[in-house]
Amino acid sequence: MKMFRWPSILLTLILLYSCNKTLPTLEGVDREAWVADVNGCRQVRVGMADTLAQQREKLLALDQLEIVKLLGNPDQNELYKRNQKFFYYFLDPSPDCPGGAATARRLVIRFNAVGLAKEVAVE
Questions:
Q1: What is the distance between the alpha carbons of residues 22 and 25, in angstroms, rounded to a whole number?
Q2: How many other CB atoms are found less than 10 A from the CB of residue 104?
Q3: φ, ψ for residue 69, nearest 5 deg
Q4: How confident is the model over 39-75, as pLDDT tens digits?
Q5: Are strands 106-111 and 85-90 parallel, antiparallel or unpaired?
Q6: Which CATH class is domain 28-122?
Q7: Are strands 85-90 and 117-122 parallel, antiparallel or unpaired?
Q8: Domain extent listing, the chain
Q9: Closest CA relative to residue 90, chosen from 69, 68, 111, 74
Q10: CA 12 vs CA 4, 18, 30, 54, 70: distances in Å
Q11: What angle do CA 68, 106, 80 make, to 5 degrees?
């Protein structure tokens, strides 16, 4: 019985390590500048908005933790019916910023009940 313990532990660790997928890279998006521009108040995200919109398919099928690793914590989030969740990242200065507009553009990521990004849009 003892001789089967170490190979099974080693096999389990190898399987867990191999299941990790790498995060996509978003060309033209400076992650540190994006994360530092909370609510879009510094207007750094405005310059990255078009580049990010063109690459939004890279965000599909990522889970919530991977999105947070890639884009930082969302400016707003919303829990919807059937365990759907929305993350909002302001591209233009939000209403919470000095001089921010109520009609500020934002990146919207909708997660399904399993927690995977199902839809990415700019509104």
A1: 9
A2: 19
A3: -65, -35
A4: 999 999 999 999 998 999 999 989 999 999 999 999 9
A5: antiparallel
A6: alpha beta
A7: unpaired
A8: 28-122
A9: 74
A10: 12, 10, 36, 38, 27
A11: 70
